[in-house]
Amino acid sequence: MFSSKIISENLLCARSELTELSKIRDFVRSQAENFGFNDDDVNKIILAVDEACTNLIKYAYKFDNSKEFCVLVETDFNIFTINIHDSGAPFNPLDVMQPDMTDYMKKFKRGGLGIHIMRTVMDEIVYCPSSESCPKNILKLKKYLHSYQPTH
Amino acid sequence: MSETKQFEIQHKSVEDIDCLYLSGYLDAHTAPQLENALEGLISKGQKKIIVNFRELDYISSAGLGVFMAFIEDIRETGGDIKLANMRPKVFSVFELLGFPILFDIVHDEKNAIENFGRMISQNNV
Predict the structure, then answer these.
(1) Whose CB among A7, A99, B6, B45 lies 3.0–4.6 Å from A11's, allowing a Cys bridge?
(2) Looking at the predicted complex, does its ipTM rise above 0.85?
(3) CB–CB of A26 and B25 under 8 A?
(4) Residue from B1, B34, B60 whose CB has the most chain A CBs within 10 Å, to mutate
(5) What is the CA radius of gyration of chain A?
(6) What pLDDT score does A7 carry?
């Protein structure tokens, strides 16, 4: 059975199974730490990626472990971007309304917080649905490194 | 740091209080274990539950959802699930969503037991 593997230093592909979450978190933690984020930001980034991948496995792939998705980390000056590529039905998390947390807690609701967490902890989210030119959906989760000092 | 230990629950019962000790990583994969443990206690009629987070390294929304699933029902019976010994990085996830308003999050087990005592006195007034 195919299992998650690091394809290159900044690319990990995983099968659509919840057991893969810990390997994805390990991979993203290592990348975010190397980029220079503090513990608090590393934890936020890991949480956002976990929530995105959990939603993908549960809702886009419906726990079909024959499917796979990939997590690619890109860095540009002070911008750390996690790109999650999947081939499920396109679903733009930015189309989901932000929950009213007061109402949420009053009614003891459960679930549906993953997207809210992603939007709260990341600086920018971009979604590109699959198209003729790009066969995969791509979710981009961006975080800025505020302590970044240009060397030139 | 890699995630060597996935998730474990240990259970201790003292008088009428049940304490669950969580360790490792609580995510969508491991949350059903906690759900089963709480379900088991509540279905036996246990009303006073303390969840000790001392060894818990990580929680995602799936873990938070487990507490949301049971808190209303257990409170309707006069009981509660009290959350103790949370590490700052785990507390920050509760805080991110405003959940400290909803849950009784206490410093340690002793505080949780004291708060259960207060609940009983208030119910008897």
Answers:
(1) A7
(2) yes
(3) no
(4) B60
(5) 16
(6) 74
